[in-house]
Amino acid sequence: MSDTVDFLIIGGGPAGLAAATLADELGLSTLVLDEQSEPGGQIYRGIETVHPKTLSLLGEDYGQGAEIAQAFRKSGAAYKPDASVWRVDEDGMVAYSHNGKGATAKGRRLLIATGAMERPVPIPGWTLPGVMTAGGAQVLLKSAGVVPSGRVVVAGCGPLALLVTQQLVTAGVNVAALLETTRIGDYFSAARHLPKALRARNYLSKGMKMRRSIRAAGVAIHSGVEKLAAIGDNRVQSVSFQSGGSQSEIPVDSLLLHFGVAPNTQITRQVGCDHEWYEAQRYWRPIRNEWGATNCDAIAVAGDGGGIDGAVAAALTGRLAALDAAHRHGVIDSVERDRRATPIRAELGIHSAIRPLLDALFTPPRDICAPKDNETIVCRCEEVSVSDLREAITLGAMGPNQLKSFTRCGMGPCQGRMCGLTVAELIAEANGEPVENVGYYRIRPPIKPVTLGELASMSD
Amino acid sequence: MFGAAVAYGLARDGVSTIMLDGADGSLRAARGNFGLVWVQSKGLGLQRYADWSRESAHLWEDFAADLRDSAGIDVNHQNGGGLNLLLSDEERENYRRNIDIMRQQAGADGYDCEIIERDEIQKMVPGLRVGEGVAGGSFGPHDGHVNPLKMLRALHRGFTQLSGRYFPCNEVNHISHDGGVFVAKSAGNRFTAPKIVLACGHGITKLAPMVGLNTPIRPQRGQVLVTERIEATVEMALGSIRQTDEGGFMFGNSEEETGFDDGTTLPVTRNIAARAVKAFPQLENVRLVRNWGCIRVLTPDKCAIYDESETMPGAYVATSHSGVTLGAVNARHISRWVSTGDTPPNFDQFSARRFDVPATA
Amino acid sequence: MFRRLHEPDGQSVSIDFEGEIINVAAGETVAAAVLAAGAEHSRTTPVTGATRLPFCMMGACFDCLMEIDGIPNRQACMVRVENGMKVRRQEGKRRLEA
Q: For chain A, which chains pass the contact test of at least 3 CB pairs under 8 Å?
């Protein structure tokens, strides 16, 4: 049995919640399928249940999520948490698992709001216990009030690295160092964008303030860090790196990595949306029109899954997609849709003005995206190393899919989420061509593992 | 798989060989290789094909050793016989009838396949509980299996190490013949050789007429499912349900007339999953991690086509959906046929001219 | 290694992790509970037997696979703790239940 609704939304982050709230207000029957157990997505993870002490150290940006979640809860939109989507069809049919059972739902209009994930960047030793993503550490903090003990180093680039460092320091965690892979020069070239974007000035000064307070708390900040490596036998014991021409090694109990975020394109790729390479941030994003609509007739994308723009913009694009859905269902005419969209677009415009600055500040260096060290594991599931991949490329595996056939890279349970970007960077580097020409894995269902029993017992 | 096996065989015989291949996203029949070296179901209507499949199965052990030597890759060849599970009385009856026909067709040469009962199946598959719904099985002693991904990689690596030259991203879109030399053109390049072998799956449809060959093939979709890795449970080759040496179980037996659409569909994957659970109930909570559709290359009688052009000698075509089973004969006999002209006995039976003969009234 | 900022208050539950009974906060994920309990590793890989701990905590990386209540290869970062839950490391390839 398939539930059919006017507006089916995958993902309970700011984009999905805001879209659902508005769609319900406009009279569309709306259902949100969420892989998490409660609304908020990753950015507002645990927003309804967070411990008051933890809330105070997470900062006010996080606190804003409560409003979005409350509005959603008050709406009449249906919510199905713990729903793991493993297949989406172009006509809006979604197959998912819930409490160990397979089910389907169908949206006359389908919104994919599955957000982003941290860019996986392989460094030597990144599979060792004790190495985790900075975002993962933040999830632990938000959802469980759990933090790394002992000596911690945060390494990489991107706003989240700074934010997590700040939050951990506030929580009393011993952060020994912040290793930034961006160069000091990046700040200067970023500054060129300042006059165009006033909000950027605030943003930059906020970031600078955060850096100052982190430094004041005793965290050593190294910029322009290269040759980052996690070292240890059965768990990480130290992190080594080069900075300013000298080699250093710091003993650690935990190493937190962060190299920016990239859209989670598993579902948009599986269903057949067209994607484009965004060179400024070195990721793929689905091609969308101004309402988030894709080349698939029934399907739109909102939020960071369509391109990284942060939580505030995500909610705005979610609302635009809801207005468009209402228009397509004949609930509002195009004049009304456009009228209601005007203030949303104005806010989005102000918000997006900061994008060039962030891109300039936090573009992951290309040499980091294509790991150099032969022993480094690229595919964490099948444990395929850089040298395995290089050999297959030499043999003539000309793209990610042939490489997968040759090496099993991307065949494990994560379905290539952790290696897809890296593999394309390695091929591009080896063949001297742009990543854009290399392409990506062909993503097929199931995008999350599903048991044979769940699949076998599905009804029509 | 057909092309790589023939190319490997040519390189192994010291023939200067170029292998031209499509791009990353090209339609690849090799994606559908299940890994079976399978004889029991082959050759209904063409006994020469049944013999050919059995010969290849017998050559496979040497072929695997050969690949190990030249490529350093163990393709995990197992030849302990193969078991095809029959999940209803109707399936069992149909298969029994096929066995009778095959026996008659084989005559004195014999056809080695027999229906066995559930308790015998259970003895052959001691690691898994055989489901109540299993109505029997057909056992073929010549059957076996290999790891098809390792086989593909071994052929490529072996070919390269034997001085073969591989040009990916050079899908051939035109062939001409001039002064005893074939010229194959891709989007950006042009390659010349005195001989040319078309073993490019569905690409043959476009290219065969350019060298005066008629090769009737059509697409048929098969969907394949693969599970998470599981500790070794089943050694024997099972038709449509087999455990790979890496641990994943592979399922798939759909035969869909859906043209060149290589997508997957919920109803078909669901039926494949249901069959798997019916055969082995312990697989119920095993996770499916990969699922894809592949486009088989089918000839009208499902048997291989091997032809040399009459109007342009030196142009050959080789195709069938059984790239793994026929790997050994392709790498040995077919490469020799191309390089020396020596044909295996009764080889003309594989010509597509067999389809020109009008059926007797 | 990890620690809790505050002890599980009123709503704590107990789970069995590798035969040891540990008190954890209701509502948190198995991955969080296992990390807070100081686990050195939560699985070994099916390919080389290397040890791993949860990496992404958001359901993407599959490095947190564990055997939970007898079911192998579950994503511990996506499963919430329940009183009396039995949690085991996923050691290499999974087995089939009898």
A: B, C
The whole-angstrom distance between C45's CA and the closest CA on chain B is 10
Of B24, B264, B287, the CB nearest to A450: B287
Q: CA-CA distance, A162 to A155, in Å (whole number)? A: 9
**CATH class for the region spanning B218-298:** alpha beta
Shortest distance between the Cα of B324 and any Cα of chain A, in A, equals 15
* Residue A121 Cα distances to A249, A371, B7, angstroms: 20, 8, 38
Domain boundaries, chain C: 12-91
Which tens digits make up the pLDDT trace of B153-164? 999 999 999 999
Q: Three-state DSSP class for A319? A: helix
Alpha carbons A312 and A326: distance in angstroms, whole number: 22
| d(C-alpha B231, C-alpha B128), whole Å | 12
CA–CA gap between residue A358 and residue A182 (Å, rounded): 12
CB proximity A454 to C under 8 Å: no
Q: In chain C, what residues touch A412 (CB-CB under 8 Å)?
A: 62
Q: Tell me: the pLDDT tens digits for B11-48?
A: 999 999 999 999 988 887 777 789 999 999 999 999 99
- Residues in chain C with CB shorter than 8 Å from the CB of A382 are 47
DSSP state of A64: T
Q: Give the list of residues 6+ apart from residue B173 with CB closer than 8 angstroms, or none.
A: B185, B186, B187, B206
Nearest to B264 among A399, A444, A451 (CB): A444
Residues C61-91: tens digit of each pLDDT? 999 999 999 999 999 999 999 999 999 999 9
Residues A250, B285: Cα–Cα separation, whole Å: 45
> CA neighbours within 13 Å on the CB side: how many for A22?
24
Structure tokens belonging to residue A226: 């290269």
**Domain made up of C12-91: CATH architecture:** Roll (3.10)
**E strand map for A151-236:** 151-157, 174-180, 220-222, 226-231
**Per-residue pLDDT tens over the stretch A88-129:** 999 999 999 999 999 999 999 999 999 999 999 999 999 999
In total, the C-beta contacts within 8 angstroms joining chain A to chain C are 123
Q: Shortest Cα distance from B162 to chain A (angstroms)? A: 12
Rg (CA), chain C: 13
Q: Which of B56, B68, B222, B55 shows the shortest CA–CA distance to B147?
A: B68
Complex-level ipTM: 0.97
A389 neighbors A403 (Cβ within 8 angstroms) = yes
- Answer yes or no: do B168 and A397 touch at CB < 8 A: yes
Determine how many CB atoms are found less than 10 A away from the CB of residue A276.
12
Q: Of A363, A404, A368, nearest to A384 (Cα)?
A: A404
Domain boundaries, chain B: 2-32+149-217+301-355, 82-141, 218-298
Identity at A168, one-letter amino acid code:
L
In this structure, chain B runs to a length of 361
Domains of chain A: 2-117+262-332 (3.50.50.60), 120-259 (3.50.50.60), 370-438 (1.10.10.1100)
Chain B residues near residue A420 by CB distance under 8 angstroms: none
CB-CB neighbors (< 8 A) of B229 in chain C = 46, 93-94
Omega into A251 within 30° of 0, i.e. cis?
Answer: no
B72, B95 Cβ separation under 8 angstroms: no
Quote the minimal CA–CA distance from C23 to chain A in Å: 13
The mean of the pLDDT values for chain A is: 93
CATH of region B2-32+149-217+301-355, choose from 3.10.450.350, 3.50.50.60, 3.60.10.10, 1.10.8.420? 3.50.50.60
CB contact under 8 A, C56 and A147: no
